[in-house]
Amino acid sequence: MKIDVSALPKGGMADVSVSGNLAAPTGYFLLNSSVPVRFEGEITREGGVYTLAGKLRADTVSLQCDRCLKPLTLSLGANVREKFSRDTFSGYDDEDVWPFAGGEIDLSDALAVSFLQALPRKVLCREDCKGLCPVCGNDLNLRACGCDRTQADPRLAELTAFFSENKEV
């Protein structure tokens, strides 16, 4: 997703509306390989720094529940404010500035970062999801399995044996 900024004068502003697909990053439980997104906002130019501000929307993000692994679809939105510059040093020491060359800015990486930051830390199909049984793998939301899920820490086995032998302690 690229925008042409070659005609934008210093102190100028332009509306930006782009759509496209972001590649799904590895290491996340996204079920689709690419996510259709839409960005609407504006870009302003002050000197050599271009500031992009607006709203990123993704209406169909396919994820898995962190507890029971059921697929679910979410809609995400994120506010975006990113700076771009042709210079490697733009005078913004404490801010992240995305570099670019030529007259076009590729928004893909900056929008992907905003998208990842908008993903929920914990994805649940419902707030009271019981998850999967760690013994047999049964979905505990559908029915109880009856498995003994009380596993003692093996490092405490000697202490457990001591207390079972000495009931008076």
Comma- or semicolon-separated keywords:
2 domains; mainly beta; five-stranded mixed β-sheet; 12% helix; 169 residues
Provide a descriptive summary of the structure in words.
This protein is mainly beta and 169 residues long. It has two domains: 117 residues, no CATH class; 40 residues, no CATH class. The protein contains two helices and seven strands. The strands form two sheets. A five-stranded mixed beta sheet has the order 2-3-4-5-6. A two-stranded antiparallel sheet has the order 1-7. β3 and β4 form a beta hairpin. It is elongated and about 85 Å long.
Write the layout of secondary structure elements.
Blueprint: E1 2-4, E2 13-23, E3 34-46, E4 49-64, E5 71-85, E6 97-99, E7 104-106, H1 108-118, H2 157-165
Parallel strand pairs: 5-6
Antiparallel strand pairs: 1-7, 2-3, 3-4, 4-5
Total E-strand runs: 7
User: What integer value in Å does the Rg equal?
Assistant: 25 Å
Structural class: mainly beta
Q: If you average the pLDDT, what whole number results? A: 83
Describe the strand arrangement of the main beta sheet, using strand numbers: 2-3-4-5-6
The helicity comes to 10-25%
- What's the total helix number? 2
Element-by-element helix/strand order? EEEEEEEHH
Low-confidence stretches: none
Task: Describe this structure in a few short sentences.
With 169 residues, the protein is mainly beta.
